[in-house]
Amino acid sequence: MAPNHRLRLRLRLAVGLLHLLLLPAASRARDTIAPGQPLRGNDTLVSSGTGSFALGFFSPPGSNNTYVGVWYAKLPVRTVVWVANRADPVRGAAGATLSVSSTGCALAVADANGTVVWSASPPADAAEGTCEARIQDDGNLVVSDQRGRVAWQGFDHPTDTLLPGMRLGVDFAAGKNMTLTAWASPSDPSPSPVVAAMDTSGDPEVFIWNGPTKVWRSGPWDGVQFTGVPDTVTYKSLGFSFRFVNDGREATYSFHVRDASIVSRLALNSTGAGGGLLQRWTWLDAARAWNLYWYAPKDQCDAVSPCGPNGVCDPNAVPPCSCLRGFVPRSPATWALRDGRDGCVRTTPLDCANRTDGFAVLPQAKVPDTTQAVVDFNASLEQCRQRCLRNCSCTAYASANLTGEPGRRGCVTWTGGLGDLRVYPGFGQDLYFRLAAADLAVPEELILHGLRRCQPHRRASLG
């Protein structure tokens, strides 16, 4: 071979090798687990395409336990957003595997001895033939069969984090309840008692629970946002969009980010470190750090019913608790000590039989707990008022949808005490609550005339 030809060959080989070395890591990395090709302790899957997410084995800081998790592949700070075996760790990383079975499409995490510590199997009729598991660019770990049908996916089993496209709520048709459960501690991803879940009774809304205790309520979806999350007016300008589905087949919430350069997640923690239990974080490239964008609970009025039934919490007032018009404290002694949890009672009994009752308005309100409320999207606000007047058990009503979409306006009605009421400065909506005629400052016709001229406040969507 001539010297010049050998030189040209070496140059081509060198250029080819350099090209391979300069390829993005995501384009060279494996993104799939197939039967007989498990993911081992030192291996990592990276999503193809943008290479945004990685899946592999990790140990939290301060822990010797090993877990299978998903994290952001491109960020300098490892942030785990999903954990497979969070309650079933592998003791030590050596020999650990994540595999997909050749039949049945089951995922399994095993230790060095081959003992399965965690597994996930799709329904018997969900897959056909050989399956593979792939980490996708949205962070979803998907098991699909040979026809490409999804047999099982991590997004149906969230841990503590809601990513864009993930759903929080209940899929009645599929029999799935998708909740967030905080880590026990930063070094222990096992489930803590702190849970964020959609309560689908009445008008659906999200609650944060700490064991058996409700600690925060989102308020119902009003067609624009959750009524208890009024301070997210800048979200749309950042390219966020929000989706709430309540159609009988599912009651779910999800968010999306149109701008791919914005990295955002909604996470639940068990300590409230940094502010709140439910936190929205966005990544700041310039600071190379996560920025806390929103959190809840945020103030004393975000606690569930700090002022009791028929009490109103205003964080800008001193004291923050007051009674609705026509009501007085049930326990004046405890109220004087600024403990309003006993709430308020009527000064004048209602007179439904003689149809003398009327309605006053509480503006800029987070509407009461809707667990026992009734929603009718086919009724106008005036029809709702008439219906409430005829029903002696009805104590309040409000608009169910503030978008004005045809056929979707509707209303919500309450019976009994009105719990977990609060007001916002410049936000919220009108709540019409029932009073005896003696407690109405002016004749009902004038009040109603004035109320019809009030327009609900509009604002953007969930944190």
Automatic annotation (TrEMBL):
In this protein, which residues make up the domain named Apple?
352-436
Its main localization is membrane
This protein's UniProt keywords:
Disulfide bond, Receptor, Signal
Where does this polypeptide localize?
Membrane
GO cellular component annotations of the record: membrane
Q: Which Gene3D superfamilies does the entry mention?
A: Bulb-type lectin domain
Its protein name is non-specific serine/threonine protein kinase
Q: Please tell me the species this chain comes from.
A: Panicum miliaceum (Proso millet)
